[in-house]
Amino acid sequence: MREPGANGRFGEFGGRFVPESLIPACAEVEEAFRDAWADAGFRRDLDRLLTVYAGRPTPVTPAWRLSAELGVDVLLKREDLAHTGSHKINNVLGQALLAVRMGRTRLIAETGAGQHGVATATAAALLGLSATVFMGGKDMARQALNVHRMRLLGAEVVEVTSGSRTLKDATSEAMRHWVTCVDEAYYCIGSVMGPHPYPWMVREFQRVIGAEARAQCAAELPKAVPDYVVACVGGGSNAAGTFAGFADTGAQLVGVEAAGGAAISNGGVAIMHGHRSYAIQDADGQILEAESIAAGLDYPGIGPEHAHLHELGRARYVTVTDGEVVDAVKRLARSEGILPALESAHAVAWVLRAAGTAELPAGSTVLITLSGRGDKDSNSLMEIQ
Amino acid sequence: MTTTAVTGVPVETHLRARRDAGRKLLVPYVTAGVCENWTEHLHACAEAGADAIEIGLPFSEPTVDGPTVQEASDRALHRGTSLRTLLADLRTVRLAVPLIVMTYYHLVAREGLAAVCAALAEAGVRGLIVPDLPLDESAALEQAAAAAGIDLILVAAPSSSPARLREIAQRSRGFVYAVTAMATTGERTALPATAGAYAATLKQHTDLPVLLGFGISTPDHAAAGARSADGVVVGSALMRRILDGAGPADTAAFVTTLRTALDR
What is the ipTM of this complex? Predict the structure, then answer.
């Protein structure tokens, strides 16, 4: 997984498809990121925050009982143990430090499940910035706890009432808002999507997941590298960060999409939210509303680098249903005492289904990234009991 | 390859001629399919003194549209509006002013650039605006549009660097669409004070007509904008009226007030 070309492409995907008004802002973010990423001082500041504030490194936990039941060796990369409860904090701390370096005083963000919004509100509080988070009305209702958390942290949460009132509409609204305030606000995108340099930059900020996991697997596994590396994919930031640590190994990379929002499995090439990738769409090219029990995967598109990995055949993308996801939450909770986020449970669900089949043969070693913890989903789970 | 039968009035020659005759240019915007009789609003605009008409083909993920045009787009999409219905509707429309389609790049790219441009030309469209297609990515569509006899109108922004403004002005066809402010489309109480100087800068780079758009909400705004630019585009102020139930006669009355202000 390399740096995208000068035009911000991963193969034919990515790019910078935004209104002319935003072109200078994107170029400014790119220049600032390149400068910061080459600056040992910036990297040191970020590493220190990740260690003393975000709780890194997160452990890799062998799933002892589940492994025995499934006949495959399962390791869990525990992003659920990072501060704020998900991997989102890794990226947001990086971008918030970048925003400060660029002289910005305000962060704007979009959020689906609320985890990126909570992480953004957290980083803003930590660094003395203000935060405005756009969230679809439907997501605000089902993730009320995270809305409350964001407000406690001092963020303004703006309800988006257009379209399907989910993450895709919050993303469009955040982008529209960014046009009006590029001089004072920094747009902190929550996944590996948006115009160049965001998909690349967010992957680099999330690379820490894969880099740590690579070293931890080397200590845990006789063969050093797992046979399979599995992560859930909405926009795909936890998967991109995880895959980045294993792209140069023989590990099979598996991204698990929600069946109701399967951009790669059921979609076609689309240009939206600043980049070219895959998205689910109707016969006229209008982007469809994704349907998933997990708000964080309720996004009709996927980051452009995933589209590229798919076309290369380097990663494969599969789907699981909401029913399988709920079963996976319960199974992991009861066998390991870990309550995963509904998003993360997609990755677990695929392993539960595939273990012992030709897709995931008995005796394999599997790393699953648990991108976040499931407390936020308690209400959703209670409703379907 | 089949030859496209280009119909309709050319954008650039038409606007240049009118501009050079001393007329200030007026381009109203109408969302395709917003109501059953939406094409009658096109006729109303033309009869009331529009110099060209911009037609919005709605996309579900609009990144430059403010609340009014979003609402119009949602309504049009719920009515089943698509490129296919737009082309069918426009085949029944023949006007003495050029028609320009505004839409997002996804809806153009997915059908194939050459195919979409040819189909638009065949339906009588002679201009195209794709606001999420920046200069750096637009070469292929510029070529396809030119081959079909369609002017690809490029958008300039207040944030564009001097070098980009120059290149936009040089590569645009038909006219240069100068966004008045760092904003989305939508009605505003005042025109930004900087719009005049910015339009004047653009005019130094090109002999093409330069039109100001975004936020032109009243006849006074139109007149003020056209003092430094060659004319204005008026979208949300008209669409707000149509969303509130204005018929073609009301559209004609509103466009007439804009025309009168520009001619004063």
Answer: 0.94
